[in-house]
Design a protein that fits this description.
Strand content: 5-15%
Helix content: 40-55%
CATH topology of the domain at 2-157: Serine Threonine Protein Phosphatase 5, Tetratricopeptide repeat
Radius of gyration: 32 Å
Distance between the termini: 77 Å
CATH superfamily of the domain at 2-157: Tetratricopeptide repeat domain
Shape: elongated
Length: 607
């Protein structure tokens, strides 16, 4: 079976006709006793265990067809196409008329994307297997599907000459003509399909053979694959099947929440040589081990610009390999990866000594096990850094702000939570703030929640140097005062979003200052502030022309003040939050809902 010889390493994948979970025949009484536990492992999808058991059994009985058959199917499920070919070839050597060997070999070639080799296998099988075999018709159907869409009518029906055998005949050349019998011209048909989501596009392949041929032949339709809406329903075989349609043209891949994927499905990206991949989202894919991810990077790393590894098993080695291989990487998200420490970014120091700057622009290290050292290495090694998120990292101190002040010059978004402005005591936070904001005048978003020392001395340099600020969030800041808010309102006139919940020293004058001076203010959150009352709501009605979101939950506002929001000037409110406001009753909430209209959302919880 010449076509079944091993192809080159990392062959591309194509979709099989039948699912890889084929039913295995129960072993006879003469079969080895190890086949039973292997079958049990196969049925519970533990293919690695199944392969180990069968390999041990084949050491004593290497020509047992049932053992080879079971192991070939298990290898197909884990993506070991070469191993499946070896087992299929061994089956045929033992019994040349055994149809399973040919079917396994053909399926392996189809998963590699080598339909021409699969077709040759099926032609050989038709000669070796008798027509009385119950699966003989499957061979004919599979042979037709392996033929190219354009040459199906000619390749399947044309008789070969006696001098040309299936094993020696060259692979059929694909015609450049578009598939016929489509409801629209092929170009228009392809354009319409390019706007369909992945689930709809996949269902279209079941309309007819012509549609399936047209869809599979146009790989432009498969350059963006988003599996996030299907979650854990996505299996290794499904990913392998769909990725094969795109091949090297795949540019955007989202596997968000696909927790059922393992290394067997993940390696299809390397097998298909997806070296044009630009964005990759693996959020919550905890079934993919770091070693498998690193192995696939050798193929994908060349063009990757954005990688999201939120809530995965990524570790220090993963990050180091990612930074080393992906020289075009701009966006890196490592949120909720507790296996990442400062050692992950030690490679940044090597790049800096070699004067090789990192291209990183956006970095998210939320809930990572890092210290100031990691941020310092990133800031020093990535001069083009524009956005940094380091929230819920308890070991981050004022040293991080000092490092950013020294190395960063293009920051537009900065998010730090729970940082102590008094640690270490050798640094003075007003001086550090002045250096940071002077070095980054383009800062547009600043998030510093749970910062107990955040007060006027820290915010004065912010107001002096960052006039283009559009978003601030200072939740749970015990030292934030009305004077600080008035200063920001007077200096940062482009503010569009202000979130200051649970700031006990903030009262009506501070909120009124924001509303009267910020003409572009669209989002205001003053929840859980006991000194906010109807005076703030009156300022909203009179001056909040651009305001569309207002949160005043757990404050002293009354039902009368809430009812007046219906007459607000400018744009109508789209969302209002009045949770746990003692002075607001159900009647006032109903009046507000009717006044704002159907599209608005009013959230009110009582008690």
């Amino acid at each position: 079976m010449d076509p079944a010889n091993k192809p080159a390493a990392n062959p591309p994948i194509a979709a099989p006709k039948h699912p890889a979970h084929e039913k295995l025949q129960q072993p006879s009484s003469s079969s080895t006793t190890l086949l039973k536990p292997a079958l049990a492992a196969f049925k519970r999808s533990d293919y690695a265990c199944c392969i180990r058991i069968l390999t041990k059994a084949l050491e004593t009985d290497p020509q047992n067809v049932k053992l080879l058959d079971c192991r070939a199917l298990a290898k197909l499920n884990v993506g070991d196409w070469d191993g499946a070919l070896d087992d299929a070839q061994a089956i045929v050597r033992v019994d040349g008329s055994n149809i399973k060997g040919y079917l396994h070999a053909g399926k392996a070639f189809r998963l590699m994307g080598k339909n021409e080799h699969a077709a040759k296998i099926y032609r050989i099988a038709k000669k070796k297997v008798g027509k009385e075999n119950p699966r003989y018709q499957d061979l004919e159907m599979l042979l037709q599907e392996c033929s190219s869409p354009e040459s199906t009518s000619t390749t399947v029906t044309k008789k070969r000459t006696s001098s040309q055998t299936p094993a020696s005949s060259p692979a059929p050349k694909k015609s450049k003509q578009a598939p016929q019998d489509l409801p629209l011209p092929y170009e228009l048909f392809s354009l319409i399909l390019s706007h369909l989501p992945l689930a709809t596009l996949t269902r279209c392949t079941a309309v007819s053979r012509t549609w399936r041929a047209a869809l599979h032949s146009d790989k432009r339709l498969w350059t963006t694959l988003d599996f996030s809406t299907h979650g854990r329903r996505v299996t290794n075989l499904a990913l392998t099947t769909v990725v094969a349609k795109a091949g090297s043209r795949l540019k955007h891949l989202s596997l968000k929440n696909c927790g059922g994927l393992t290394s067997g499905g993940w390696k299809c990206l390397a097998v298909n040589k997806c070296n044009a991949l630009l964005t990759l989202d693996l959020t919550a894919c905890r079934g993919i081990p770091p070693a498998a991810f690193v192995e696939a990077l050798q193929v994908m790393a060349r063009s990757l610009t954005a990688v999201d590894l939120t809530a995965t098993k990524a570790d220090d080695l993963t990050v180091r390999k990612l930074l080393d291989c992906c020289r075009a990487l701009k966006d890196l998200t490592l949120a909720q990866c507790d296996g990442i420490t400062d050692d992950a970014f030690a490679i940044c120091d090597n790049f800096q000594r070699k004067r090789i700057p990192l291209t990183l622009q956006t970095v998210d290290l939320t809930q990572c096990n890092i210290t100031d050292k990691a941020v310092t290495l990133i800031a020093a090694g990535a001069p083009s850094l524009t956005s940094l998120t380091v929230t819920k990292c308890p070991r981050i101190t004022l040293t991080t702000l000092a490092a950013l002040a020294t190395h960063s010059r293009h920051l537009t978004a900065l998010a730090l939570s729970g940082i102590s402005l008094l640690d270490p005591p050798t640094l003075c936070h007003p001086i550090v703030a002045t250096a940071l904001f002077r070095a980054n005048p383009s800062l547009a978003s600043l998030t510093l929640p749970s910062c107990p020392q955040l007060a006027l001395p820290f915010l004065q340099p912010l107001a002096a140097h960052c006039a283009g600020l559009t978003h601030i969030e200072f939740a749970q800041s015990a030292q934030l005062t009305n004077d600080a808010l008035a200063l920001l309102a007077a200096s940062c006139t482009q503010l569009q979003s202000v979130r200051i919940p649970t700031c006990p020293r903030v009262s009506d004058p501070g909120a009124v200052a924001l509303l009267t001076q910020l003409t572009q203010l669209a989002h205001l959150d003053v929840s859980n502030n006991a000194h906010i009352s109807d005076s703030t709501l009156e300022a909203v009605v009179a001056h909040g022309a651009a305001l569309v979101y207002l949160a005043v939950g757990n404050t002293r506002v009354s039902g009368v003040g809430v009812g007046r929001l219906v007459g607000k000037v400018g744009a109508a409110l789209r969302e209002v939050v009045v949770d746990h406001c003692v002075g607001v009753g159900a009647g006032a909430v109903e009046v507000l809902r009717r006044g704002l209209g159907v599209g608005a959302r009013v959230r009110a919880r009582f008690g």
